[in-house]
Design goal:
The protein has helices at about 5-10, 20-30, 40-50, 65, 90-100, 130-145, 155-165, 175-190, 215-230, 240-255, 290-295, 315-320, 325-330, 350-355, and strands at about 80-85, 105, 110, 120-125, 170, 205-210, 260-265, 270-275, 280-285, 300-305, 335-340, 365-370, 375. It is of the alpha/beta class. Strand 8 and strand 9 (about 280-285) form a beta hairpin.
Length: about 375
């Protein structure tokens, strides 16, 4: 073999990567050291890690060509909170999670458990309360600072919350098409260091509050187009097509920013239960297109625990006598976010083993107070 042939063979074995791919790989390896902490809450992170890191093959796609061969388990974390009933508590849990993502990790020597990141929220239902979010964040900060040896003034708490909220980016699209258009150009806003103060922060999460907000609007538009015969017959519905575009945009943004995707939705069917490994676990049939269901990593069914009703035959006097105790029981009732097991037949054995090692079968309990939200395993 001549020296030229030898050099040619070596050159063919060299894999060429762009600087963007090299930097993305380096960033992933750095974040991979902290991969156990996605949200700042141990209970929720354990569920995400059960799906994401059940083995060592989970890597983010490094190049455009790799994206077509990447599996569901190799993509970034996507968490969906599904409200099983009205007033299920999913929005309050979302406030709590957004607060942790925005808040700093510590204040002085006190651990605040925050992610110190920027968050982009798409308020598709136009009903997100900034005042409630601020109150929940302040309650969390006060709870953490209350453990310090010296008292912290309320002005300091408000200052921490106010500075954190500067890194919250809220967008309120009015249609699914405006949502897709905003996602298309979102990276331009985030990379523009002169348009916001979050340039020195990573993007902790992209949140879609009420991802099903335009469901009926799109279905109506699809039905009207089919009735008017103004477009050729398509094999897929308008709703599925737009959700496919939504998922494509989110995957692209997640590839660029390596961030957590959080979505909320409401259930249209009742929660059922099935027995797995001797335990009763919840299952819920999703009304969203299959392309969205396969995109989600973990789906949590959020609902309020039932408070025991008055026994049959109780008198009015007895009911009135217990009114105060029952009101207290209702106010202190527990909310729960439980893992949806409806797709468990497709889960890998490594994932099932990781879930079996989690206490309470993947249930996250929390309480909602006027002052804030308290989540189990918030340590």
């Amino acid at each position: 073999m001549t020296l030229a042939n030898f050099g040619s063979n070596l050159l063919r074995e060299v894999k060429v990567e762009g600087l963007d791919e090299l930097l993305r790989t380096a960033r992933f390896l750095q974040r991979n050291k902290q991969r156990q902490n996605h949200t700042g809450n141990a209970a929720i992170d354990k569920l995400l890690n059960a799906f994401l890191f059940s083995d060592q093959s989970n890597l983010w796609p490094r190049s455009t060509s790799d994206q077509h061969n990447v599996t569901h388990h190799q993509r970034g974390p996507v968490l969906e909170l599904v409200g099983a009933t009205p007033c299920s508590g999913k929005t309050q849990l979302l406030y709590y999670m957004i607060g942790l993502l925005l808040l700093p990790s510590k204040y002085g020597d006190v651990i605040l458990k925050g992610k110190d990141s920027a968050v982009v929220v798409f308020d598709l239902g136009n009903n997100l309360s900034m005042l409630r979010l601020q109150k929940i964040m302040a309650y969390h900060v006060q709870s953490c600072l209350g453990k310090s040896s010296e008292p912290v003034p309320i002005a300091t708490v408000n200052s921490i919350v106010r500075c954190s909220l500067e890194h919250l980016h809220v967008v309120r699209p009015q249609t699914s098409m405006s949502l897709l258009a905003t996602l298309t150009t979102l990276h331009l806003h985030l990379f523009n260091t002169t348009s916001h103060v979050s340039a020195n922060r990573t993007v902790g999460s992209i949140v879609l509050h009420r991802v099903d907000a335009f469901l009926w609007q799109d279905r109506l538009e699809d039905a009207e187009d089919q009735a008017s015969d103004t477009r050729p017959i398509q094999k897929t519905s308008l709703l599925s097509s737009r959700f496919r575009d939504l998922v494509a945009h989110l995957r692209r943004l997640q590839k660029d920013f390596l961030c957590l995707i959080i979505a909320t939705s409401s259930a249209l069917s009742t929660t059922g239960y099935t027995r797995i490994d001797g335990q009763m676990v919840p299952v819920l049939r999703s009304h969203l297109p299959n392309v969205w269901k396969s995109f989600v990593t973990v789906r949590l069914i959020v609902q309020r625990e039932t408070v025991r009703k008055f026994p049959f035959g109780v008198s009015v006097e007895e009911a009135m006598a217990e009114a105060g105790q029952r009101r207290e029981a209702v106010d202190n009732s527990v909310f729960a976010a439980r893992l949806d097991w409806s797709e468990s037949d497709d889960w890998r054995e490594e994932t099932m083993a990781a879930l079996r090692a989690i206490e309470s079968a993947g249930e996250v309990s929390f309480r909602i107070k006027a002052s804030g939200v308290v989540v189990a395993m918030d340590d």
